[in-house]
Specification:
2 domains, globular, binds 2,5-anhydro-1,6-di-O-phosphono-D-glucitol, binds manganese (II) ion, alpha+beta, about 350 residues, eight-stranded mixed sheet, about 20% strand, 17 strands, D-Maltodextrin-Binding Protein, domain 2, Fructose-1,6-Bisphosphatase, Chain A, domain 1
Length: about 350
């Protein structure tokens, strides 16, 4: 996790004199001053991601006007998912922004088979690796529904004098130094954590800056919505079907956008639970541990929520075995995740 914080109320990133606007850049620079031994690399990385997000946002906003919707010529990515043109564009922009500054030494992306080395810029030796899902929910692009970018930052484990290794990326989510997402929705919002709470910054298009809009986000203890692809109901295990029946019995509303980052953002603000259990097509679950589940789990936990797989293991404690590993997930308001856990404990022992 991030370096220990030193007490310095003068530089407290949460203090906001008067009502003046606090930009993302200003916030991360002030937050960095609260960390002893901070080198500025993490600040630089978050800024790079903020710049890439603005570029992707610009393209997402005019997607219907230019020839950037639809399926990419590249076909499928390494996980066997159809690649959209905007998946490819967002991936390229993120890689470009991170390569230009050299603030990280390597990158792993949902859209690339293997890790990408980032050549050092000048004599700078970077201590961080970055992984991301450049565009989450990309099947939504062509129909004008919210999509997002998800990212996670870790300290490399290998010797900094040599190239980064795949093992630098195969770290449990509890070792994330920072994680976040950008949601290109009705407005564009960047939400991130460095392990000291969660803050959200809304893009003000008139000045082209992300401005602090959601300070110290806390997830509601309980919610009235559940989020799952109920079309797969008959393919879910008994305990999951019983839990979903219970949601319906309790009159919880069903909300499912088909872009995890959008569903999680709603849950963070309004409370609720998101489920992606195993199905016949995806016996281990569909969502990717490194690019989707770990970063969103860190954010949700930092906001007071919970995140487990359907074997009841905390997502952040799973030791990854491969870059594109998939897993099941149940994530959201703590009381709802606990309720689901009770259903799994009660029904999973029963014969089908
Ligand atoms: P991606 O667009 O990055 O491949 O991710 C799509 C994921 C996730 O965002 C979403 O929750 C889920 O796939 C939807 O899957 P189903 O269509 O199977 O419900
Ligand atoms: Mn995704
Ligand atoms: Mn994606």
């Amino acid at each position: 996790m991030a370096a220990p914080a030193k007490k310095n109320p003068e530089h407290d990133a949460f203090s906001r004199p008067g009502n003046r606007i606090v930009t993302l850049d200003e916030f991360i620079i002030r937050a960095e001053k609260d960390f002893e031994f901070a080198t500025g690399e993490l600040t630089g990385l978050l800024r790079d991601i903020g710049v890439a997000a603005k570029i992707i946002n610009r393209e997402v906003n005019k997607a219907g006007l230019v020839n950037i919707t639809g399926v990419a010529d590249s076909g499928e990515n390494t996980s066997g998912d159809q690649q959209q043109k905007l998946d490819v564009y967002a991936n390229e922009k993120l890689i470009e922004c991170l390569q230009n500054s050299g603030e990280c030494c390597a990158i792993a992306s949902e859209e690339n088979d293997s890790i990408i080395q980032v050549p050092a810029v000048g004599s700078k030796q970077s201590h961080y690796v970055v992984m991301f899902d450049p565009l989450d929910g990309s099947s939504n692009i062509d129909v004008n529904v919210s999509v997002g970018t998800i990212f996670a930052i870790y300290r490399r484990q290998s010797d900094p004098s040599g190239p980064a290794t795949t093992e630098d990326f195969l770290q449990a989510g509890n070792r994330q130094v920072a994680a976040g997402y950008v949601l290109y929705g009705t407005s564009t919002i960047l939400v991130y954590t460095t392990g000291r709470g969660v803050n959200g910054f809304t893009l003000d298009p008139s000045i082209g800056e992300f401005c602090l809009s959601h300070r110290n986000l806390r997830i509601p203890e309980n919610g009235k919505f559940y989020s799952v692809n109920q079309g797969y109901y008959s393919k879910f295990d008994l305990e999951m079907r019983r839990y979903i029946d219970n949601c319906s019995d309790q009159n919880y509303g069903l909300r499912y956008i088909g872009s995890m980052v959008s569903d999680i953002h709603r849950i963070l603000i309004q409370g609720g639970i998101f489920l992606y259990p195993s199905t016949r097509k995806y016996p281990k679950g569909k969502l990717r541990l490194l690019y989707e589940c770990n970063p969103l789990s860190l954010i949700v936990e930092q906001a007071g929520g919970k995140s487990i797989n359907t074997q009841l293991k905390r997502i952040l404690d799973i030791e990854p075995k491969e870059l594109h590993q998939r897993n099941t997930i149940a994530i959201g308001s703590p009381a709802m995740v606990d309720e689901l856990k009770a259903f799994i404990e009660r029904y999973s022992a029963l014969p089908l």
